[in-house]
Amino acid sequence: MALKCGIVGLPNVGKSTLFNALTSAKALAANYPFATKEPNLGTIIVPDVRLDELARIVQPQKIQPTTMEIVDIAGLIKGASKGEGLGNQFLGNIREVDAIIHVVRCFDDSNVVHVDGSVDPVRDKEIIDIELILKDIETLQKRLEKLRKNAKSGKKEEAKLVEYAEEILKALEDEKPARTIELDDAGMELLQEINLLTAKPILYVCNVDETSVQEGNEYTKAFKACVADEKAETILVSAGIEADIAELETKEERLEFLSEMGLSEPGVNRVISAGYKLLNLITYFTAGVKEVRAWTIQNGWKAPKAAGVIHSDFEKKFIRAEVIKYNDFVELGSEAAVKEAGKMGVEGKEYTVIDGDIMHFR
Prior knowledge:
12 strands; three-stranded mixed β-sheet; 14 helices; alpha/beta; 41% helix; 18% strand
């Protein structure tokens, strides 16, 4: 599945440093605006201890984790919606991603210039919000013109779409992101179809200094209060620490470094896991001596569609799925033991795959 998260933020907030830590790619990370002009695309491994545990039990020839694509997008400034800076390019790149990771600067450092002269994550967020909202208003107004013309045909469905569009437009004009608007199913369908920038799910990453990575600071407290009503997740990460971890060669070195910093896991792991959740994704596994593999699907998919990510023929020719729950497999120690205990399920086309299922398709 080619789903993407886009990293956005003002220039010099640590986007590219975080991107480099997340991926094996090496984007230019420099202390001046527009260090990133072209979006950098990287494929990142989604950490999952369940995959490691399955591999320990099965001892396969190959282990294949699941992945997610991430895009480092050029920094935005005031006036982007009117084409200032790299605005048009920035906004176009955001339109192509499925979810947004918004990085805000929550640290002081006189050696790293701020594009607006001072550190204020709440102001920085509002700058980007306004630019995205202004672009969405422009997009929606064009769509509303077409909807109103269609509504003149007298069809009730068309008139209802105009109502939805007007409701969305009013919220945007009140400076509310489209993702915060409460709509029924038909309204949400229109919202998805229009593909507004502020309708995309969002994760806020507060980039902090080393001393603030666990408890935060005054900047992060103010920022969390600002986004409290958005129902969006906010996490603290020190991009500097993550860059240092990424440079270490072995797992042992990384664990020792984390221990010294008082951390249980790299911040990038939390970013990746949160991004995965943001996209409403889950993982199922296939486990055999040749390969133990994690597969990414949308939450709520039925078994045939889930089988299709392995190969399209699996979906077309689906007969049934043999399903083992992860906890049962780990507790009993093998597929044979699970069968013997009568805990292998045989499911049909209407079975909804659950996160962690171990699947074998027939």
